[in-house]
Structure formats: C-alpha cells, structure tokens
Amino acid sequence: MKILVIVGKRSEIIKTASIIEELSKNKIPFSLVDVQEQKGWFMKGSHFLDLDYPSPDFTVKFDANSFQSLVSDLADIMCEEEPDCVISSGASETTCAAVLTSNLLKIPFLHIEAGYRTYDLTSQAEIRREVIDALSTYCFAPTRNAFSNLLIEGFNRSRVFLSGSTVIDSLTKLLDFARTNSQILEELDLENEPYCLITIHKPENITENRMRILFEVLQSVDCYFVMPTHPNTHKLLKESGIYDDFMSLENLLMIEPLGYVDFLALEYSSQFVITDSGTVMEESAFLGKPVVFVGIPERRELIEQGISFFSELNKEEILIRIKKAREAKVSRSKIYRIFGYGNASEKIVDRINRIELHYNPKMGSEIAGKLINFRVISVSEPLNQLREKFGSKLLTAVRDRKLITDPKISPSHILIIESEN
Asked: Any long-range contacts for 372-375 (C-beta under 8 Å, 24+ apart)?
C-alpha cells in the first residue's frame, strides 16, 4: 500500500501530523504534498517544525485565482506516484482540489474531519465540506454529530467511521512540552496578566464594517486581549485605515501569528477565547476554556452542551456572549466524550489497514473521470420531485440553514454536483 498525504493550510498540518506518525509506526509508505495555500514561517513553517513533520516530497504553488491549475498540478503528482489512496483533511481549497483530482483519476480518497456541517449554503467553506464528503471513498467523522450528519444525508454506513478528532491527538501530544518550554508568556509579559485570546481570520469577518464593530467590542469590555493577527486581517486593518485605532487600545496587544507550541501555551493560560476558527474553538474547549465563536459554528456539540457560545459579529450580541463565557465552567469530561481521548489517528490508520480500498461508490459514472462543477440553486419544488430531477447529483437540500429530509417539504436551496461538458 502507498498513500499520498496532501496538506494546504496550517490547520491541516495539525490535523494530519498524528496520521503521519501512525503511518510511520505501521511502516506504511507515504508521500507528502505541501500545497502553499498558506506559507511563511509563522503561518506554516513553524508548524512543520513543532509537529515534527517530514520534509514534503512535493511542493505545489497555490494560485487563488486558478483552482484548475491546482487540480492539474495534483493530477501530475498522482500520476507519478500512483498511490493506492489519497488522504487530506478539513475543508480548504487544497482538500477540495485533492478530492476532485482523486475522482478524476479514480483513486480512493479518505477524508479526515468529515461530517461537520452548518448547512449555510452561502458559505464557500460549507459547500466545500459537503462536496468533499460526497466525493470521498471513506469519511472519518471526529464527533457523533458529524457521524450522524453523514448517515442522515444518506451516506452508506460502510463508508463512514467515527474516529474522534485528530486535532486533539496533536494537542495532547505537545501540550506538556508547550507548557514547560514555551517562553511566549515571558516574552509578552503575560505571566501575571489575566487575558482573553482572540483570533479572527475568516473572509466573512474581515470587512471594514465588522472590524469596526470588533474595535467597539474590545473598547467596551473590561478585559485585556491578546490577538495574534492573521496576515489577511492585518492587511484589511491597514487598507481600511483602522489599524491605528486598534493599536491605540490600551487593553489590546496585537502580535504576529505564532507557531503551534507558542499558540498552545497562550491558549492554555488564557481565561477565555474569542475566535472564528473551528480548530481553535476545539482546542480551547478541550483545554477547559470557554469560547465565543464568531459566526456559524460547525462544531455544534460545544454549543449544545453549553461549553461554547456563538455570535454574529454585532456589538450587542457578542457582548452578551462574552459575559456568558466569562461566567461559564467547562467540564473536561464532556469534551472527552465529544472529541475522544487523543487516539483518533491510531483508530484511522488501523481502519485503513483493514478496509478494502476502492474507488468512490457514491457518485454515478456520469461524474467519474470528468471535470466536476458544483453550484447552489434556488428551488420551490418538494424534495421528492428534486430527487427525481437531479438523482445522485443532489447533495443537500436546505431551508433556513436546516437540512430537509422530508420528501414532501420544499427546500429553499439545493447544492448539486455535475460534470462539465
């Protein structure tokens, strides 16, 4: 067996580090592809070092304006390597390109972190999540909710496995090292300073209007904030002319992005966390920190259990959520039940050793081996008529961000996938 592992963003390095370690332990040959969807030392390079990654066998340039060129580059690598399967994680453009390329070449694709959903079809990330799962041969769900989502959507039970979260694998492996070896608290003079950690980077939140709202929120809260600033966030603040406003806040420390070990140490010592990152939300909750998630969270369990809170980026709502977070107590036992105990990668690699790898059984022959397109369309017909009309091309039917499964109910929007002529 030979496996091709593909990563694009730093969060994917976190999610696949323990997979690579288990593949090595089991002496399963693999090659590593680094797509430079994010690059730079603090955004990515330090994560390779902290998580003891092997050197990539292939490095692929990323062009945000040419998705097709990424598919073409990955196809060249897959044709050269001839892997028995491809592994990737999350819902980035890299992972989406990887699964599309695998389908073009009829190579089995294994998706790590499958089944997370918001059912918000205005979100490109949500569309990618659903397309990636639909085109995956096997889906490894990190939580019971994610596992249930896939079954409710009609995935064959033999294709879906409950694994636990590989994010927690990396966290539990390096937490003690981060606590004892990171010097970040001393460097930032935070050893005796209570603070809230804040990270904002999602495209929907990085607008001038929303950043001005965030400024007003930080100005209104009696708390010290530490904000590792994503390059895209930094760019928006500069271009919109509000960077100096943020810098003038006496209760805000804006810093450069951090490596994985330093970021873990900063998370661990924080009082609570404000973020729009699902990975940070998961890590922080596992560390016992109340979280305010800015946006629509895909990790619904944390909200349902009262461990985390979510809010759109408007001042009144987020201030209420911050107050609740500061008063909340997080049960570590609940977190273990949600995400597992840090052995997800062991379960995944064990399953890989035991399953019969074959090409994706869900999509019809009209899709296989062709360029694939996916789109959201407005509809008014009941679901049963839509199923007849679109067949296996119909992936999701939603109304008000809720999945529609009753055949008599009419959704407002559907996500379909089709081959390009």
From this structure: 372/100, 372/103, 372/104, 372/135, 372/417, 372/418, 372/419, 372/420, 373/417, 373/418, 373/419, 373/420, 374/127, 374/131, 374/415, 374/416, 374/417, 374/418, 375/415, 375/416, 375/418
- Look-up: residue for tokens 């323990």? 18
The pTM score is: 0.92
User: Domains in the chain and their CATH numbers?
Assistant: 3-164+342-354 (3.40.50.2000), 175-339 (3.40.50.2000), 372-419 (no CATH)
**pLDDT tens digits, residue range 377-413?**
999 999 999 999 998 889 999 999 999 999 999 999 9
Which single residue is written with the structure tokens 């090409």?
A: 359
Give the model's confidence band at 362: pLDDT under 50 very low, under 70 low, under 90 confident, else very high: low
pLDDT of residue 361: 53
d(CA 40, CA 329): 37
CB-CB contact of 307 with 335 (8 Å) = yes
Measure the CA dihedral 48/3/392/402, to 10°: -30
> Distance (Å, rounded) from C-alpha 117 to C-alpha 321?
22
